[in-house]
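Escalation from tier 1.

The customer reports that the assembly of two entities below gives different structure tokens on two consecutive runs. Tier 1 could not reproduce it. I'm attaching the input and our single run for tier 2 to review.
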Amino acid sequence: MGQGTGWMPEAPAPPTGSFLRLFRAAPFRLTLLTLALFAFAGAVLMAYVYMAAAGEARRRTDADIRREADSLVAVYNRSGPAALNPVLVTRMAGERRFVYLFLAPDGAKITGSLAQSPVENFTGAATWVRFSLAGQGAAGRPQSIPARGLQLRLSGGETLFVGADASDDRDFIVTIVRGLWGAGALLVVLGIAVGLQASRNFTRAMTGLTDVVAAARNGNLAARAPVRGAGDELDQLAEGLNDMLDRLDRSMSAHRHAGDAIAHDLRSPLTRLKARLETALLDAEAGRGDARLALGQALDDTDGVLRTFSAVLSISRLQAAGEAPNAVRFDPAAMVRDMTELYGPLCEDKGLEIASDISAGLAVRGNPAFLAQALANLVDNAVKYTPAGGAIRVRLRRMASSEVEISVTDTGPGVATADRDRVVQRFVRLENSRNLPGVGLGLSLVAAVAEAHGGRFELGDGPGVFDGSGPGLRAAVVLPSAP
Amino acid sequence: MKILIVEDDQPAAEVMARGLLDAGHACTLCPDGLVGLEAARRGSFDVMIVDRMMPCLDGVGLVETLRRDGDETPVLFLSALGEIEDRVTGLRAGADDYLVKPYAFAELIARVEALARRRETGSVLTFLRVGDLEMDLIGRKVQRAGREIDLQPREFQLLEFLMRHAGQAVTRTMLLEKVWEYHFDPQTNVIDVHISRLRSKIDKGFEHPMLETIRGAGYRLDA
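Tier 1 run:
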């Protein structure tokens, strides 16, 4: 994936202004939403506080009025109306908070600071009333002052009214409301500040991630997102992204490696093919040589190239899938018998002895065709590398670890311990096998099949050196036993 | 034989048609699945060669539709998808055989002719005869010119397949697939050795060899 591939969509241009970007950031929007919900909740709270405070203030004023009225009624009851009058006059002169009105049983005013009672249609029962007092504001302007009052019928038939200035209550409420507004404003300001800060942090973390994604998009798989160590979702995302990039990078380089290997292995047969065709063309023009023979050889070369392709394809797809396609539970005995039988005549022709040793009643889970091909490749290899007079043994058995082993042991030259890992790699053929047919993919395919089945491929020593041959090779596919 | 080729790769289809024409078959070409479906419904074909991945209607959809309509014309799938699961999907859709690109032309011809032949003969035969070679499928006995030939079970199956497709080329992959019932590309000449065993049994001592090797293709049994 290079810079110039041209099939990827263009990345959307990032917002230019940093303030705009901040505003568009998800956490900032979230903060605004939270703030709106907070403001609503705050307004409800303020309304409740207001109502509670107003009620409390009124109750306090009412209690004061009631106490004042009770003390006046006590004077009246103890000493009569004649005693109440001077008390009222004294109180009106000294006490500025209360207003009084004392009426005779016929309704005529005896004494008081009010011209008439604010209570209309007085029935005789104790009556509460809300009214206004004329007063003076701060600048000396006439002002209406809210007041509360209580009117009572005294035992001698007189009427007593006690009122009180309730403007203190109003001041108290106004103070509370002002405080609430202040708290609300503070809440909004703090909220925006916190939102901006969270937004900036988030944006910074996100920029790290989006930069890496943008780099990967442009083909640079080396960039990694910073992990801040907070262990939060963003860190998890960054770790996930980095992990994904690691795997992608590995898989890309594996593909690149495979591509190089294919190119390497296909170049020589393709060059040979081209040369053969060119020579054939020259020969045909000159009227000499056997064009049919040349074409036949060219066809054989093409077959080799195609076989390489299909082997590489099988390996890649197995490795990519990571599991055997169409897996079934089956007893591999028949397959082992079939493959031994398939190679019987070939071995006989080459002067090799082939025998099988098959345990019955085993079960594995996998794709029989792939496993058959893997076993065929192993037998093929053994036939190819074992000199005449040797022996090949195909074995199916349960190992002590209860895994199922399908192995092919030969009496050929074997593979040196140091080379064993290498022969499994794609296209590797040891020096002494250069002149034998095959593309060096056989064992890689076996390994890929074994891994796709959750098993492994093992190379080990054969039966040992004997009579000039050996030490031999034991090649085994070890599979987990199916339940 | 009338063959319908449904293939969106025009040059490939033309090369295929030319080769089939040379082999004496009439071909109709269709560039995509829908056109192919119409052609298949209109005309009667002996065999259809259908590419799997095509515009409009893919091969699997085409074959499924035909089979639902009760059309049993043998179908050979062509595909660049070679894995076993793809084969299984293709055959499950109702195709009769499956060939992976790139293929040898001899392989294509051999499989197409095998498909047509299978439809002609069915499989209820109890006795096969090719020239002076006779096979009794029930008694499991083989004779050539009256002389009994002793065959191993696998050799018998191999000869049976060759006799059922007498006069046609059969490839090594076809033999491994139909006789051993394993589908992979054998790496060495493992099949050749079986054939040469069989050949030594049926041709030895006779003037006229029946089992011949065809370069680049496989083998042919002929009277």
